[in-house]
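Protocol step 6 of 9: fold each sequence in the batch and record its structure tokens directly after the sequence line. For illustration, a two-sequence batch is reproduced in full.

Sequence one:
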Amino acid sequence: MYLSRFLSIHALWVTVSSVMQPYPLVWGHYDVCKTQIYTEEGKVWDYMACQPESTDMTKYLKVKLDPPDITCGDPPESFCAMGNPYMCNNECDASTPELAHPPELMFDFEGRHPSTFWQSATWKEYPKPLQVNITLSWSKTIELTDNIVITFESGRPDQMILEKSLDYGRTWQPYQYYATDCLDAFHMDPKSVKDLSQHTVLEIICTEEYSTGYTTNSKIIHFEIKDRFAFFAGPRLRNMASLYGQLDTTKKLRDFFTVTDLRIRLLRPAVGEIFVDELHLARYFYAISDIKVRGRCKCNLHATVCVYDNSKLTCECEHNTTGPDCGKCKKNYQGRPWSPGSYLPIPKGTANTCIPSISSIGTNVCDNELLHCQNGGTCHNNLRCLCPAAYTGIFCEKLRCEEAGSCGSDSGQAAPPQCSPALLLLTALLGTASPLAF
């Protein structure tokens, strides 16, 4: 009996363990910026590092094509299906919705068949290069959390560069080169992400892995984010503490996964042969059905919410920080230099909250939290206490009869204990000491 029960429990544990295997054993979600806890001094805020959830960032981007008139359909033209020179009865016409292929079709829902896609004009001006820049802009710093995936409806290009910007498109750096022949196209030896390591993870490589023309099931191009994470967190991303530690301490690594803009440079369409077939130029073009970019707003671990309002992403900053990326301390909270939050220690991290400036403490004469008006007085615009008729003083702490020397048993008013405004202010300031200790 006991043996069968033991075996049942063991089987259940094995089942539960196998289900949990793909998930990290220790994972900091960082989805809360602060919680209230009870201490010897009473209820206080406990602050922790926090960040928005990872999401589909293509919902918030703006796309720009260069040249701007490169999209097919104006004027209408015919093209060959998947590069087949004998199937050239397909038509692109911008004035007919069923035949139009505008840029927004790169980001619509892809659950239908046939797929919707953006398409360029054909290579009718050969031998002039057919080149297109597709720029994706967020007007906000974002952190990439998953692979960038580009799905082509045409053959994958023979030559392409994925670029990134960290300054809203003012300057650009290559992320990765793609070519059927890296040495010929970019004077680089071909590599894949598998050839990299922790020490070379930031190396910019040229890969031939995704440039195989019209081969069946060869529509997708990746930029591998998770494979690069895996150099620090392990193949199943279980050791996130190691990755977080590297992101905390290595700015170049953190910046590598951070962008404000991405640019896809299509330099040469899929030819499939050594020579271009000049008799059938309608078979050469670019067509993209889907682009996936997952990430989160960069809020420097000072916010869990990033709102999209008036076509703009903005962090809702916590920890007394402010700015588009929560990149500075709020006014009157500059008691120590601003610092980003830290992922460590797992699982709550360190908030590095901005604290009040010394000069800002006590600038209000009164308030409803620390500098209370006494004896029923009310605080007016934080500038003065409005006292009942019988009281006076900065905090309504004195009886009026005291000034006239008439307080006593005859007046029916007893003089309150002597407590100067300076002492009251000092007491209020000392009361802030506990919540401000980090």
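Sequence two, same batch, same settings:
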Amino acid sequence: MATDSSTQTETLLSADIDEEDDFVIITHQEVNAARRPRFLNDISDYIDSIAEELWPINKKIHDKPELGYGEVIAHYTLTAYMKTQPGWTVTRSAYGMKTAWVAVYDTGKRGPCVSFNVEMDALPAIGHACGHNLIATASLAGALATVHLLSLYSLPGRVVLFGTPAEEGGGGKIRLLAAGAYKDHGVDISLISHPGTIPDCALTHTTAYIRMKVEYFGREAHAAAEPWLGVNALDALITAYNGISVLRQQTMPSDVIQGHITDGGARPNIIHAYAAGIFVVRAATQRRLEVLVEKVMGCFDAGAMATGAKVKVTRLMAYKDHVPNRLLARSYARYFNPLVPEEGDGGRDGDGNEAGGPNKIPEDQDVDEMRGRSGASSDQGDVAHAMPSIMPGFEIPPGPGGAGPHNPGFAESAGTRLAFERSLRVAKALAGTAVDVLTIDGLLEEVKKEWRRSMNGSR
């Protein structure tokens, strides 16, 4: 059921021709109507109709923040709601994780399988300062709207919602991938979104990331009487730390190396037999991350060689870079832009000033991708290396003082009605993207070709 707006546009342009001057007069409203995707009104009307059902779910997740793998309230709230939706099969505590869940809608007709990821976890002490309540809302509403269109037009295919725990450092999506969750359901594409304070974008590209624990083992001795008998583990760690500081002079602008000392010895009068720290390395691509980690490992080894201490490095968690699919992103922008009000939506930031957004997504995808480049990381990156994915960014008003993500002020903003309403606009565009994949002949094949090309350049 392939559809586009070309026929509608041709009809529009031929309707208002001034024969005397030989030019066409059209209004902005007519242009917007011509560009409006066929299914957008159905999607938008449906999501508007369930907004009051979704608002208390969004608020409960926001107001009861829970850490990764402990999202008990969010898990129950979301699955309880999904169990009330006709045609969905809901599995709680899925794939060996207490707070993971899966909801499946199957038309029984062969077609693509589109999935939406639902994040739920908050940050320690500062709550939903990454807006995961809004991510959950956008994915939930997007999936429900997609199913509404499947039913309304008797379309084939399947829709899967994954409740994905512990994005904040716990890698819930990685565990789902390893357990075969996406393969079990034959997922073709993965959709999600993320709030922030930068203008709306379709092509969010996050960084590849690894978190490591480095430990040095030395030998105690009296630091004043017989220091020569000791091997100073803290000196080894400090040498490595300083080596990394020097290394930064020769790294790329997108490279990031961060670290802190977690164990710095027992007492000043004892040569330190043990020292440890946590280090994080980020890079623009997975390939670059591997090169950078090798250099950092050289600094760790140098600390051991310089002092005689032994070194142990434990890789704690790693996320791949999110490589967005350009064809899916183009579809998303096609649905999102007609929804953006010309005069804004009256948003105010945490200081009471007029806030930015929502913003139309640039038609030039190179510009869009520049807007969407982020120094942050997400386990959605690992999903994007397994299948085509997009993670559009959407702007919500910043908190007091311009506070963005991972700040208490942003958590406050993420709980507002305006932020919720903006997440619903995102849901409409996500649903449109899913419907395009389900209805446009050959689109999924082209999406997968684009994904393979992008993976060859990233890995």
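Proceed to step 7 once all outputs are recorded. Observation for sequence two: DSSP finds 15 helices and 14 strands in the chain.
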